[in-house]
Design brief:
- The protein is mostly beta strands.
- The chain has two helices and 37 strands.
- The strands form ten sheets. Strands 9, 11, 12, 13 and 15 form a five-stranded antiparallel beta sheet that branches. Strands 18, 20, 21, 22 and 24 form a five-stranded antiparallel beta sheet that branches.
- The chain starts with a helix and ends with a helix.
Length: about 500
């Protein structure tokens, strides 16, 4: 086999590792242009990892799975979400143990058809982390939402997270090792071999001295919550966390538990970039704290603006943010939204320096406060989905920071019944809108919201899910990045069998 054939196979393998798997096909006309022959195909296999929800005996957790209907998919397929340390009947979640005994998993949920959500529930503090795999018609755009209600104690409130794909690097900012915080970084290994991970912490004065975070081994098909305060003796109100995988791959997410304002999940930010968007700050937020970090050697100066329903505005007293190289910087923006929907837009004032950012959002006052986190996120792109929604507790926020755009929002059928409904919205340039998203007709159960960009500039989105427990306004916010349900596969300009001779 010559170098040309090897490069084609290597390229396809790289695409599969990042976005899923798509089959490489040769064109019927061997003389056609390779670039023009590139095909956009649905991914054929997807993996998602869900962290251990809670150690509280008062925790009740629901998992909701949804796959949008996608043209061109296989007629068949399967998907399941099972405990990380168990093995399914077909061996898709091998425990990695060499005992020779097969351990049968009991999936928390098994989807039946694309276009209709399916749910599963667990309770108590013994619920493990879960590994999910979808193939065929269930793979493109597969989304799983983990939502936990904790009635009292540390981290009380509503905690939600989008189960995410395994990767080799993650950035977080907004974590903490202060006295009133108990933060964990959850690491889940879905594979048959051990993963080796380094965790680096950066505070207000730079990198924290610690060797404990180096070379952490995560066993095959297992999940470990690493308490951040065990990695350093320093008490830091605002921390940035870098998870770097030396070998293998993991899923990573931070669980931030606060004694005063409840808890929630802090998802990884988008890759460091010069400009960032943090969408979906609730209009009734009583406090907003912006945390930023630049991993490079140069300081970053950022213009801070709020995309409101009427356009971009500059918060008084917080016009800019200076982020020193390698140091975590935070600023309190107060009730920056002032009763209106809003999204933060960060852009360089001069030189563009890659940064990461997140906001901690607080709703309520006094003993009835609750918090959630919004990391910087990429645009909706072609399509994005929020899997777990209720008729009264869901708010969909969309922003178009640079140019106007038209989007289609589809409410799926309900998990217990109902019919899908779609609605089209126009988002003006520089604005954020809490759109009146449709709900399924005859809704029973929960439903999914799928956002598709039809035209115009990039759109960013987030979904807020709210539920009041004991008079406390519990809420959680999940961003809506592109679901990467399709992959562009370049087709060979000649019969591959010729190259194998």
């Amino acid at each position: 086999m010559n170098r040309t054939t090897l490069s084609l196979i290597a390229g396809t393998a790289a695409l599969a590792a990042v976005t899923g798997f798509a089959t490489l096909k040769s064109p019927s006309d061997s003389g056609q242009d390779t670039a023009k022959a590139a095909a956009v195909l649905p991914v054929e296999r997807t993996s998602l990892l869900c962290p251990q929800p809670s150690t509280s005996d008062l925790a009740d957790t629901s998992f909701t799975s949804f796959t949008p209907v996608t043209k061109g998919t296989a007629a068949t397929g399967k998907a399941e979400l099972a405990a990380a340390d168990e093995q399914s009947d077909d061996g898709s979640a091998d425990s990695g143990k060499k005992s020779g005994k097969k351990k049968t998993a009991k999936p928390v949920l098994t989807p039946k058809d694309p276009g209709t959500p399916v749910t599963g529930d667990t309770s108590g503090g013994e619920t493990p982390a879960f590994v999910g795999t979808a193939e065929g018609k269930f793979a493109p755009g597969w989304a799983v939402q983990e939502t936990t209600e904790v009635a009292a104690g540390l981290g009380r409130g509503l905690l939600g997270v989008n189960c995410s794909a395994p990767d080799t690097e993650f950035w977080f900012t907004g974590a903490s090792t202060s006295a009133d915080r108990t933060d964990y970084v959850h690491l889940t290994n879905p594979d048959d071999s051990a993963a080796v991970v380094d965790i680096e912490l950066y505070g207000k004065d730079g990198a924290l001295d610690s060797t404990v975070g180096e070379g952490i081994t995560i066993a095959p098909h297992s999940s470990d919550p690493i308490l951040l305060s065990t990695l350093t003796d320093e008490k830091q109100t605002d921390l940035s966390v870098h998870v770097n995988v030396r070998s293998g791959r993991v899923g990573a997410v931070v669980q931030a538990l606060d004694e005063k304002v409840g808890g929630d999940w802090l998802a990884a930010t988008t890759d460091p970039a010069g400009s960032l968007v943090l969408p979906g700050i609730p209009k009734d937020a009583t406090a907003v704290r912006l945390i930023a970090f630049t991993p490079g050697d140069a300081d970053a100066d950022l213009k801070v603006r709020l995309a409101s329903p009427s356009g971009l505005i500059t918060p008084a007293g917080n016009e800019t943010l200076h982020v020193k190289a390698g140091m975590t910087t935070a600023t309190d923006l107060g009730d920056v939204t002032r009763g209106e929907a809003g999204s933060l837009v960060l852009t360089p004032t001069d030189q563009s320096v890659p940064v990461i950012a997140a906001v901690q959002v607080v709703r309520g006052k006094g003993a009835k406060q609750e918090s959630a986190y919004i990391p910087a996120v990429g645009p909706v792109g072609t399509r994005a989905t929020s899997a777990d929604n209720s008729a009264k507790g869901s708010t969909l926020s969309l922003t178009a920071p640079t140019a106007g755009a038209q989007v289609k929002v589809t409410a799926s059928a309900g998990s217990g019944g109902g019919a899908a409904v779609s609605k089209t919205f126009t988002i003006k340039a520089g604005t954020t809108e809490n759109v009146e998203a449709p709900t399924p007709t005859g809704l029973k159960g929960t439903y999914a919201l799928t956002v598709e960009t039809l035209s115009g500039g990039p759109v960013y989105g987030a979904r807020t899910l709210a539920a009041t427990e004991g008079g406390v306004p519990g809420f959680t916010i999940q961003t809506l990045p592109d679901d990467r349900g399709t992959v562009a596969v370049p087709q060979a300009d000649q019969d591959l069998s010729v190259l194998q001779k």
